[in-house]
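Please predict the structure of the following assembly.
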Amino acid sequence: MTVREVAREAYREALPALAASLVGGLVAGVVLGGMRAELRAVPGLLVLVPALLATRGNVYGSLGARISTALHQGLVEPRVRGGDDRLRAAVAAALANGLLASSFAAVAVFSILTLLGDSVAPLPVLVATALVSGFLSGIALAGVVVTVVFAGYRRGRDPDTLVGPIVTTTGDVFGMLFLLVAVRSVLFVAGVI
Amino acid sequence: MPTDWTVRAITGAMLPVLLALTLVEVGSGLVLGSFEAQLLRYPTLLALVPVTIGTAGNLGSILAARLSTSFHLGTLSFDLADEHLAGNAVATLALALSIFPLVGVGAWGLTALVSGVRLSLGTVVAISVASGLSLAVLAVAVTLTVTYVAYRFRLDPDDVVIPVVTNTCDVLGVVVLFVTVQLIL
């Protein structure tokens, strides 16, 4: 193959996935743009955003890859019902790791900003926001990943090629939407207390 | 080496890397925090953040996945004249050139609809295209370096390269966006 042929093939294969994640990223961006009041009310929240979004991608991307490998090997049946033990353990591990990484990020942001002498919201506000958003988006993403990988597999598509674009697209959108829900709820509860 | 399907085994395999990557992402959050005032003043710039980070990470991970497949198939050599290397690098630049103008137009248009814009369309497209092209060049450099290191240390590129490249490109996405905004605004 010549350089030109390799380039053309790589371009054609990648463009649809990039375009899909472009839409997800733009929706997430508009939500972030509409969150300015919350970002001002919770100093340090913006610093937390990349870590929270990346955690969704890392955790649920790995969950999707794990399930699609298991489907190829016949370790897991492509059915949501029936409560497969392996599948349940993989989803529980993803949720637990997502929550651990999210609260770790909140503690790290709080400590670093405090050391730097920057203004930062109280630690419980940051941790609660990270946990609530991690839990809600985790449930949503686990549902989407499992459903899409199973549906794709049953229709004869290679689940490996579905996982990446789906996780980046829905991860950004759900990650951001549930971050907004989480920070509003935490601010509401903090205001009541 | 497959991991057992228990919460403990999966966590043991995943958590250390996950926490390390989280710290790297906190680093990129700190860069974001350093121009928070500008971002809050111009919601269009805020709208560019997730999509720029995401697209940069995707460009890197697609290239990494393709190179690691070529590598497993034995069709890749680390020679600048290698057609797989050069072709994939060219495709990454072409993809960035096609996607980032849309990123700028989309971020500007959606922000205009939702909350009103303070920056002109031209400025926003200039910022997104300039950062997109710089990111594509960086993504190629990072991916080639990490793939080469994995190859030298006999690590499976599938395990190592994609997470490292994706998260590095995330961080570079924020840094490049910051530098571009300072140069253009």
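The helical segments of chain B are 7-34, 36-41, 43-73, 83-114, 121-152, 157-184. The two ends of chain B are 50 Å apart (CA to CA).
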